[in-house]
Amino acid sequence: QMASDALAYENLPFDDKLRIYYGKLFPYDAMFQWLSYSPAEQSNDSKSEVFARREFSFTLANDVYIRYLSYSSAQEWKADMMKKLPHKIDMGAVYTKEPNQKAYVSKDAFKEMSREFVLDIDLTDYQDDGTIKTNCIDPSIPEFRDSWRFMAVAVKVLDTALRNDFGFKHLLWVFSGRRGIHCWVCDERARNLSDQGRTAVAEYLNIFKGGEKEKTKLTAVGFNMHPMLQRAYENVLLPSFTRLLEEQGWLDDEKADATLDLIGDSEVKDILLDRWSRKKRNAAERWEDLQNELRKTAKKGPGGKKASQVEETIRFLVFRFTYPRLDINVSKMMNHLLKSPFCVHPKTQKVCVPLDPQNVDEFDPVEVPVLDELLREMDRSTSQDKNNIQTSLDGYVKLFKLRFLRPLAISIKRSANQDNQSELF
Fold this sequence. Notes:
Elements: H1 2-10, H2 14-25, H3 28-36, H4 49-52, E1 54-59, E2 65-69, H5 74-84, E3 88-95, E4 112-114, E5 117-122, H6 144-164, E6 171-175, E7 180-185, H7 188-191, H8 195-205, H9 227-248, H10 253-261, H11 266-278, H12 283-298, H13 307-322, H14 328-332, E8 338-339, E9 354-355, H15 371-384, H16 394-424
Antiparallel strand pairs: 1-2, 1-3, 3-4, 3-8, 5-7, 6-7, 6-9
Helix pairs in contact: 1-15, 2-15, 3-5, 6-9, 9-13, 10-11, 11-12, 12-13
């Protein structure tokens, strides 16, 4: 029986699967609660001024793309999702008027007003220069877990910077469904940032300058390194480096040449390649050799490098391979669209689920629920009790509510109370 259930879903057209998912599993109420930013409890047919002015865009079957959709309630949103069955849902800014009225208002009357500050990081940006093994960025294979380690590093570095250096508290981290990660910073201060402010925050977090990743903004990891980078280096990058080095093989025979070119010292390169061709050394030992040879050059008298330059080179390599690579343009503009959480990725059929930044090492992208599995789980649980649907998505929705929505709601209530109090005086 189970095998035939499995086949029944695998053979269903994607739109039919989405109809069930959008009808029974997509968490409209929790999403509506978030996007309303309202101190009041929301019910299914609540109306929200803020939600109603939010832009949604849908990508339908055959790449039909519709922008400037908007809804007055969670119910209305659900009805349209069921009707259109979007393969991808993006969310944009909150505007001065409802986006679905855009055609009827003057250009000056239709402006972006607010939008979460967002970050977007994708593993494909680690691929072009050989940082990640190319065959390991398919999230359905176990080897993908090695590649995902770069995303865990990114979450730790960026989450700490956003909280400690900017004082943001309400961060929603979401798996993009395939090869990346998105962050929505939902504090009021973040939502109201101008494009200039957004660009400033994004540039602060970014060390890769210029189109090619080679042009690292090297001054940033120089002698007087910024405390944010120093903290990232000591707490996250360096502790992760040896394991990533082993898994990705940056100093293995086939990659050592290109990696050693990065240090710009042909003498050190020749010494090391010669030594490694004669003696078997594992990744950690090769990394040790490289550091030792570089440090020797600092001791070679007047012609040698300064000790600080050597440490800089070592740091540069660590940053070059492990520091998060942001798609910075997504962060700079208030009106940029970004994929909605709980959307299903059409290629992998994995759900874009939230993750807990405190336990990012435990997050397993290979195990993230796939649409077919969810439909089977739903069938199994409803056969016992029609009204009680249980699936592996539940844990992620619970995480969304407890770790993100609840603290956000408390903070919105608190600031609403403060506003009321100040009006009294």
